[in-house]
Amino acid sequence: MRKITIAVDAMGGDNAPGEICKGAILACEEFEDIEIALTGDENKIKSCLAKKNNSRINIINTTEIISMDEHPANAIRKKKNSSLRVAMEMVRSGEAQGCVSAGNTGAIVAGGVLIVGRLPEIDRPALGVVIPSVLKPSFMLDVGATVRCKPENLLQFASMGNIYARKILKIENPEIKLLSNGTEEIKGDEATMSARELIEAKSNLNFKGYIEGNDVVWGKSDIIICDGFNGNITLKLGEGIMQCLKNLLYDEVKKSFMTKAGMLLLAPVVKRLWARFNYEKYGGTPLLGVKGAVIKAHGRSKAPAVKSAISAARKFIEENGPDLISNEI
Amino acid sequence: MRKITIAVDAMGGDNAPGEICKGAILACEEFEDIEIALTGDENKIKSCLAKKNNSRINIINTTEIISMDEHPANAIRKKKNSSLRVAMEMVRSGEAQGCVSAGNTGAIVAGGVLIVGRLPEIDRPALGVVIPSVLKPSFMLDVGATVRCKPENLLQFASMGNIYARKILKIENPEIKLLSNGTEEIKGDEATMSARELIEAKSNLNFKGYIEGNDVVWGKSDIIICDGFNGNITLKLGEGIMQCLKNLLYDEVKKSFMTKAGMLLLAPVVKRLWARFNYEKYGGTPLLGVKGAVIKAHGRSKAPAVKSAISAARKFIEENGPDLISNEI
Hints:
By secondary structure, chain A is α/β, with parallel strands linked by helices. Chain A has helices spanning 18-30, 42-49, 72-78, 83-93, 105-117, 151-168, 190-200, 213-216, 228-253, 257-276, 303-318, 321-328; strands spanning 4-9, 34-40, 57-61, 98-101, 126-131, 138-141, 175-179, 206-211, 223-225, 285-288, 293-296. An 11-stranded mixed β-sheet of chain A has the order 3-2-1-4-11-10-5-6-9-7-8, with helices on both faces. The radius of gyration of chain A is 20 Å and the shape is globular. The interface between A and B is large, with 61 and 61 residues.
């Protein structure tokens, strides 16, 4: 059995290090072929692992932490002994084949480029995310790694998304659409229109034109391509709306006995609805275009989400994701 | 009493001409200072108005219709006797001071520029929309008139939004934010970053920096500025999510007697929630930057929404909206 080592940033995210350590334990219990290197404050990690320690979990002591609001590139450059940077150094040196962090997204992107390194064939990296939708989940990229893209970048995102969807998400011949302000050919800004032509010309991509905002949530495409500026706004808006409706609903329900009773009867429905839009099961956000499996877990991740992200890193490594991307381009 | 004439495109929108005519009647009943010119198929309009005809409603017979999927600029140029173009010609000639249509948005924007005409001080027009949010409604522009914007365009949108919010929405000293991929100063693409500097330098604008996607729905700004590409995607995504949740909820509820009973008890809550996000009460989407009050009503508008759009046109005319914008820039 080939051994896979995944470096996990134990100090990144809202629930670090407790839930990160728990997630690492869960992952080791599920996958016998992985070893995990937890980077972070050794004492804290030890007390989190407690008696549940697994012989395949190693601790790499680090002394610095990159916080959520630090300048990403500066933090990665200066904090040489931070849990995130050390995890990424392990990927660069080959000690690990992949890394997972629920920390500062910008720092993960910056570290992916500066520490792990870009694949020579890829000009700009992309963060891809599986967005829960009605008909089927969609894989959307970029959601924030490359803020403004040239048409060539969007083409590369389409190729990378195609590989990720086929190999990791196991979607056969995935449909690819480009996010735009309408479905007609005359729509789109200049970069989007040029990207459309470039992607259309690639015969190995199953390209189906534009998708507009209202169809995103219905899952009307396996892969959705956009630049990091739009992707970030779209993703956050979706999260914001869901969170907002949840809060409003519970506030309103509390107001009377009748509505509380109604909510009780409706509980299974509401549970099913939220479960459908639960990011935890979708296993993290890959940073595509770098020399290794770099997976960003949601900042609010609890143990099951951390385990999912580790599982995504494992799959990506098993499938030789970075090599596949290099060969495809 | 000053008489205001508003041309209304009776043939535009999913529910034309029936609901458009009903909306015109409602508006005339509410506002005694307006006259309405309904442009469209005279016979159809007459049968819609039936006995409810109001002496302040005139019919202007037209023979062509611009459909929802026509190329906007071509349609406006070629269909000289279309209900939309004739309504806009009335604004250009001064027979009307404003017009309302629930038809093809692109054609309304194209007609606003080509027929009604841009204000000389404004380089590109903007469609503004009041988006229902939790804390307070926000006025967002542009949501689709100018697909890709220069920083100077975004600055003009901020000034136009400021006037509309103050004069029409009656918000004192409205807060203005720029839609971006994060709230920190380092965020934003090039155009957004430059626009930030330009808007910041205008001392008459109450500018508060960036707003990110998840805060849009909370109403964390009175005015939200973005380009038409992003604005269109954001607006449609929001609509799509709401529609999708509504459908999923009703599908799930139908499945058992218990959940149906629960839904019955929760009905007032759900009604209040949807009412909060109901576009009908917000009265149409102004096309700002043109020489008249051009208001786009939602394509699915029924009579109350049409009345709201006519009311918005009336207010904009009463306040001399276009002059205010010219003077401000």
